[in-house]
Amino acid sequence: MTQSLIVHRRGLLMGASALALSACSPEPSEAGEGQYATSPYRHISDADWRRRLGDASWRVMRHEGTERPYSSPLNDQHGRGTFVCKGCDLPLFRSQWKFDSHTGWPSFYDVIAANIGRKGDLAIGIPRTEYHCARCLGHQGHVFDDGPRPTGLRYCNNGVALKFVAA
């Protein structure tokens, strides 16, 4: 029996067994974990998050749900500014990085790297990379290798996990 390999964007190789383990426990974040490790946002109870965020955002951000495609008003947000985490207002994306991916979710080709964490995700049976706010650990979406230049990445974000702050 041969073991298939997955090529990570940065050239690392992960075997299927390592990938399966990553779905069970979060991988170390690539960015921001140390800086935000003592954040008070990480000590908010689930009930308090639900009160703060409302049901839709709470389901997505605290329980890794997904909003319905084409349901977010942020799909049509084309102004200059910054997209920030709805849970803690940490800046995640600049408006010039947004593009229409025709997927129904706000999509970006770049991210403020120090402000996100990543982990492997096998929830739907195929390997994906989930990303979350590095400060409050709120789930944002998944990153894919089918985005436009210059990065080739598509950060597919749930609109209910973001707020837009005009410049």
From TrEMBL:
Its EC number is 1.8.4.12. It is an enzyme of class 1 (oxidoreductase). Pfam families: SelR (PF01641). One of its GO terms (biological process) is protein repair. Keywords: Oxidoreductase. This is peptide-methionine (R)-S-oxide reductase. Residues 46-167 form the MsrB domain. GO terms for molecular function: peptide-methionine (R)-S-oxide reductase activity. GO terms for cellular component: cytoplasm. The gene is msrB. It comes from the Bacteria.
